[in-house]
Every structure is written in structure tokens, then in C-alpha cells.
């Protein structure tokens, strides 16, 4: 499904949600939000918490921007979006701190840095400010789910190989030789590169099949 033209509202379809999972995945396709992707994905729990926190901020801020899009002056729209986003980031920051201090310390400053996440500000400016509430909510959920899945893809691989555990539970026994590099910063780059290589191969394979199918139809006609 083609993206809507600038300043043109999008109709609500299944593609409104699904684009964020695959076609416009924030991490594997658009390469946005790389700081938290590489920094906090040394465990599945950290990745899940950051993904859910980002999704909450993305959905709530996009919804509020959509509701107020006709009231926000163009001259101060970016500043207004940042204030809205910062409000929901503050809520998330206090909630995570209240739930688990260990998780809060593990995520560190990256909770506050959600304010500067390109995914959230970009969706507010490019999508929420131009579309109705229902469409914005569905699209934001899709983008948030795509971001969370990407974080989990990295966090799960890094925890299994780097610690031999999944969500803290041992998988391979005491004799498993862990890959310590996977829970260190270079491990994030290695795993991200491997996932990007896989998705690039899948896209090329899909494009090749489409081309071959068109050639077969042309020969048969």
C-alpha cells in the first residue's frame, strides 16, 4: 500500500498498522532510534521494557497531537510536540522507577532520551499532525509494535548467546560457554548487522520472485 501524499489524510486500512511491522519498520528499514536499540538490548527484559515505554509515549503523544492538530500554530508546532512528548516520557520515567529500581537503573538515561527519539517526533510531525485520531492510533501502535519487535529480536539473541539465559532463566546448563562480547556494546552492532543482512536478503528474494512472476505472465500472454 502506498503512503499518503503530503497533507493528505490516510484511510484506515490493515496496512495502516502492518506497515510499521515490516515495510516501514523503524529499526530494520528506517534505521531510527539506534541509540536505545544498541544500548539497552543486552537482555530481553530491558529490550521489552524500552519497547513498551517507547510505544506508550509514541501512541499517547501522537494521539494528542492528532487531537490538537488544528489548534497548534505552525510557528511553534515542533516546540509543542516536544513538550507533549516530554510529558508522557516523565510519566513513563516515574512509572518504571516505581515498578522496579533495578530495571530503571538498567535503562538509565535512555528513558529520558525517548524525548529525542526520531521515531516519536517524526511520527508527530509527518503523520499525527495530518491524520484523524483513529488512523493515528492504529499507525502508532503498528510503529510501536515494530520497534518493540526489533528490540526483542536483538535483546533475545544477545541474552541467549551472551548470558545463556532467557528472561534470566538458564537455557543450556552450567557448561555453556557464553559469548561475553554479545552483552558488550560491540555485540549490539554484530547482532543488528546480522538482522539487517537477513532482512535485506528476504527483500531481495521477494523482489526477485515478483520479477520472475511478471516475466512468466508476459511470456504466457
What does this structure look like?
It is built from 8 helices and 2 strands. The protein has 221 residues and is mainly α. It has one domain. Strands 1-2 form a two-stranded antiparallel ribbon. A hairpin with a 2-residue loop joins strand 1 and strand 2. The longest helix has 36 residues, at 185-220. The protein is flat and about 60 Å long.
Radius of gyration, CA atoms, in whole angstroms: 20 Å
User: How many DSSP helices?
Assistant: 8
What are the secondary-structure elements, in order, as H or E?
HHHHHHHEEH
Q: Helix/strand/pairing class, anyone?
A: mainly alpha
Strand order of the biggest β-sheet: 1-2
- Describe the oligomeric state of these chains in a short phrase: single chain
Approximate strand percentage: under 5%
Query: How many domain units?
Result: 1
Largest sheet composition: 2 strands, antiparallel
Q: What's the layout of helices and strands?
A:
Layout: H1 14-18, H2 34-39, H3 44-68, H4 77-99, H5 101-107, H6 118-126, H7 133-163, E1 165-166, E2 169-170, H8 185-220
Antiparallel strand pairs: 1-2
Feature tags:
8 helices, single chain, mainly alpha, 2 strands, 221 residues
Short description:
The chain is mainly α and 221 residues long.
